[in-house]
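Example record

One chain of 386 residues, shown exactly as stored in the release files.
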Amino acid sequence: MGRWIAAAALCAGLASCDLLPSDGPNANSVLANASENRKGDPASVMRFALVTVDSRIARDAEQYYQPVLPTVPAAFQRPGAFGRAGVGDVLRVTIWEASETGLFAGKERKGSDVTVRVDVDGTIALPYAGRFMARGRSLSDIENEIVARLAGKAVDPQATVMVAQNVSSAASVQGEVNKPGPYPVERTDQRVLDMIAMAGGTKYPPYETSLRLTRGQSTMSIQMQDLVDRPETFNVPVAAGDALLLARKPQKFVALGAVLQPGEQIFRKLPLNLTDALGQSVGLDPSRSDAKGVYLFRREPVDLARRYGVQLLAEDRETVPIVYQLNLRDPQSFFAMNAFPVRPGDILFVSQAPLADAAKFFQILSGATATVAIPRTLGGNFPSGN
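Predicted structure tokens for this chain:
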């Protein structure tokens, strides 16, 4: 019995004991070595509301933070310009005649191929047809222009025009892709995902990547995850001159306390709920966590706080500091976790069990000496002693 009294006395002094492992100095050590101890002004202490997460709170939060998808501007809801010649394009012109003795015909072939590049002023020049404007015109318009200019010079001329090298009809794909650069727009149904594939795909997962598509004065900004999940809405056709910029913008929360993997956590999916967040932190540390003490710290809009029934204070003007509490000893909490959303910037904290320091002390003591008996449970079932 004497050995148990001694062990109990040692446990009572754990708060001021330096024998236990620690990540740094304890609070008493910091206070003892401070040259000045300026206490906080009670009037400036932030007051927060403690809200227990149940099915109603989880449902209210889920509805409030229901994702609102961005709208697609009208400029992107229709195909852009395609099939028009532009400065720098190389055109292959074939001119056909009805006679073997014409300007462009011969004995073996009643036609000739002419390759021209659209000049900086937007014009092209062809034999016997002269120089004329080609920039911004469709290939069929250029064909009709050639035939009209050769009338009376060639024998019943016909012309076909093809783009041999597409320079002007290109879209730029920049940012977090594997092969950034300009890529040709060669089809009317060429879309955003096609351009990203041509650029080698994104460097980072969709949930970490944002996309901005610019056409003239119009811009569409979305998450890459939205593009992957809803291609029927956001995988719009691209046009010559479009610019796609992909940027890495991971959303983060912080996990602290008695979790197995504390630290900054990147959202690995969108949206992220509380179950996902605890899973990313590899769950609670079974040796020191308090399952009743799972907390989430966040500033919430006043409208949502009112929906919860929180009594607002004078300082609660736009947001309210709220600490959400979850009791994982209650099976119903696991259903609420699946609905409760985690937001960027949240702090997830799991408190330490009240007897965690005592368990740590007994573990150290059991390795240091064999003369002290260690209880099998903290609630009883002690081994017999003298």
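Notes: The first helix runs from residue 2 to 12.
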